[in-house]
């Protein structure tokens, strides 16, 4: 299937070039042949286990088969291809966002088809029984035509998913002021905190800006910005810009604003104070050895806030105590971790009701974790749990407390814990609970 693989790469590249700007969707090909050499991080782990994890993260699974269904490695009962297909089908059964595109090259009549061909035939029958569509083809030209058609159709379905489009649109209900004469349409400014020089060596601090065009960004903040941009492009909104706290423009009062990672964003903290009476949360920045804190109240009727600490440091210490120092390595990323965050939206009513009726109320959005992981998780929640925002009214206040779970370089779950009592968060920070969750997560995986 070497030629088909080349054709697939070409078609994906062409569809990507067409769609990335016009539809705001970019296709990244995950082909194991393009990976650099990988050393497994765990004693019992194989290269295929790493590839299987990549399959779990994909949005489109492309299967091409002819006569063979793959060879079985020592110690396994199924081929690598079989295992990948089973993972993709399981994700379909779990109703994950996945498109399964499968193509079978026609096999000439054969009196004795052999074990491999029989496996391929059984797979086709299994897909048919499960209602998973597949195509058959005879020539490479036919395959190219089928794949191009199906891929364009798939991208359009992602772009115009009515359910997600509607829910995301309900979250991003932006206003515009009369003073903002340059734009008749809404604008959104996204303000993030750059990496503090406190984390750099003395030499780096002295000469850092000689070698940089813009400030460095925390990786978790960058992932959050990617998710936010993805949701905005999904609804066709392009009028947004990113600014660091060091370069925030003076026109902030005339546009919609989104504040990232509040514990490190002093301007965002000051802005949050204007919603002091209606906010169910506030943040305390890290001071010295004291880490940042989130303060939460379960309803506006409760005047008392309780503290929510991030257990992230305990998770990292527990799993990395023998891996400190040195260069970054894959085993340092293979960890379980948790953090807490807030995703919120407030309507800025300072202009008065009449102005709001004419052009919509300006909005302040807060996407903020106690640590960077939480910020990433809050943006992930907007992208993956978008149904939470369905049918939100234009001026409805949104405030959700989130628990973010990370495993092996990716976020695996974000849950709404807004109604949990204070005791729950104290329990999540106990070292015994941390160890128990790590053990449980490893067993499940």
How far the N terminus sits from the C terminus, by CA atoms, comes to 32 Å
**Number of helices in the DSSP assignment:** 15
Estimate the helix proportion, in percent.
Answer: 25-40%
Category by helix and strand content = alpha/beta
The side-by-side strand order for the widest beta sheet comes to 5-4-6-11-10-12-13
Q: Unreliable runs, pLDDT <50, ≥5 residues?
A: none
Secondary structure tally: strands: 13
Radius of gyration: 25 Å
Bin the strand percentage: 15-25%
Mean pLDDT: 85
How many strands, which pairing sense, and closed or not: the largest β-sheet?
7 strands, mixed
Number of domains: 2
- The SSE order reads HHEHEHEHHEHHEEHEEEHHEHEHEEHH
Q: Outline, from the CA principal axes?
A: globular
Description:
This protein has about 450 residues and is of the alpha/beta class. It has two domains: about 1-160, Rossmann fold (3-Layer(aba) Sandwich), CATH 3.40.50; about 165-445, no CATH class. About 40% of the residues lie in helices and about 20% in strands. The protein contains 15 helices and 13 strands. The chain is globular and about 80 Å long.
């Amino acid at each position: 299937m070497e030629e088909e693989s080349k054709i697939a790469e070409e078609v994906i590249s062409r569809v990507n070039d067409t769609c990335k700007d016009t539809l705001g969707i970019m296709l990244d090909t995950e082909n194991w042949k393009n990976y650099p050499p990988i050393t497994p991080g765990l004693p019992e782990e194989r290269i295929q286990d790493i590839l299987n994890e990549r399959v779990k993260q994909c949005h489109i699974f492309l299967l091409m088969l002819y006569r063979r269904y793959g060879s079985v490695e020592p110690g396994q009962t199924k081929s690598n291809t079989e295992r990948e297909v089973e993972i993709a089908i399981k994700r379909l059964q779990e109703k994950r966002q996945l498109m399964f595109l499968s193509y079978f090259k026609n096999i000439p009549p054969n009196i004795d088809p052999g074990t491999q061909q029989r496996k391929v035939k059984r797979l086709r029958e299994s897909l048919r029984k499960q209602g998973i569509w597949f195509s058959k083809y005879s020539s490479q030209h036919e395959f190219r035509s089928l794949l191009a058609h199906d891929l364009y159709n798939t991208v359009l379905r992602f772009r115009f998913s009515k359910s997600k489009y509607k829910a995301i649109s309900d979250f991003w209900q932006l206003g515009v002021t009369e003073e903002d004469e340059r734009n008749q349409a809404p604008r959104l400014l996204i303000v993030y905190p750059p990496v503090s020089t406190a984390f750099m060596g003395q030499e780096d601090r002295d000469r850092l800006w000689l070698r940089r065009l813009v400030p460095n960004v925390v990786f978790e903040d960058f992932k959050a910005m990617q998710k936010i941009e993805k949701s905005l492009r999904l609804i066709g909104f392009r009028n947004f810009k990113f600014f660091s706290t060091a370069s925030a423009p003076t026109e902030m009062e005339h546009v919609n604003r989104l504040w990232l990672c509040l514990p490190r964003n002093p301007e965002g903290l000051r802005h949050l104070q204007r919603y002091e009476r209606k906010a169910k949360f506030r943040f305390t920045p890290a001071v010295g050895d004291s880490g940042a804190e989130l303060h939460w109240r379960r309803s506006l009727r409760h005047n008392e806030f309780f503290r929510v600490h991030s257990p992230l440091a305990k998770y990292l210490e527990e799993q990395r105590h023998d891996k400190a120092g040195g260069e970054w390595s894959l085993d340092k990323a293979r960890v379980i971790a948790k953090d807490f965050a807030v995703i919120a939206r407030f309507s800025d009513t300072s202009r008065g009701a009449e102005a709001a009726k004419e052009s919509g109320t300006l909005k302040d959005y807060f996407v903020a974790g106690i640590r960077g992981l939480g910020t990433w998780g809050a943006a992930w929640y907007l992208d993956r749990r978008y149904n939470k925002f369905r049918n939100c009214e234009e001026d409805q206040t949104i405030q959700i407390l989130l628990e973010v779970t990370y495993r092996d370089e990716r976020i695996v779950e974000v849950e709404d814990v807004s109604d949990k009592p204070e005791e729950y968060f104290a329990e999540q920070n106990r070292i015994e609970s941390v160890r128990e969750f790590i053990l449980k997560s490893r067993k499940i995986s």
